[in-house]
Amino acid sequence: MSEKTRYSDEELSEFKEIILDKLEKAQRDYDLLKSSITNTDGNDISDTSPTFKVLEEGAATLSKEEAGRLAQRQMKFIQHLQAALVRIENKTYGICRETGKLIPKERLRAVPHATLSIEAKDTQK
């Protein structure tokens, strides 16, 4: 029996559902992070009241910086998921970009945006 070179349309459809679900959750998380940075979700007085406690102000700045880093990371994740959807449409999804072999389904279910098999990832180290 010859080795499969790509996943079937049914399998690609299954992966697409997984990716769309993750993409929806990732977008919600990103929106939440973004609103915490821009303070659009609050109707409080933190922007208008004089701040007397320097430590609180420093903590708020640090918190916004951390949220910014998390938002950047989340956006990168969203972009990887969107690229995976393009690969599904092109029917190249699940093919390792190093070895050209199919990435095991278990790996793709765990990391749906993966472009490398474990074997190829280990050789990179």
Radius of gyration: 21 Å
Q: What count of helical segments does DSSP give? A: 4
Number of strands: 0
Structural class: mainly alpha
Mind describing the biggest β-sheet? none
Characteristics of this structure?
elongated; mainly alpha; 63% helix; 125 residues
Task: Give an account of the 3D structure.
Helix 1 (9-38) packs antiparallel against helix 2 (54-89). The longest helix has 36 residues, at 54-89. The protein has a domain at 9-91. The model has no long low-confidence stretch (mean pLDDT 84). 63% of the residues lie in helices and 0% in strands. It is elongated and about 55 Å long. The protein is an all-alpha fold.
Summarize the structure.
The protein is 63% helix and 0% strand. With 125 residues, it is an all-alpha fold.
Secondary-structure topology with pairs:
Elements: H1 9-38, H2 54-89, H3 105-110, H4 118-124
Helix pairs in contact: 1-2
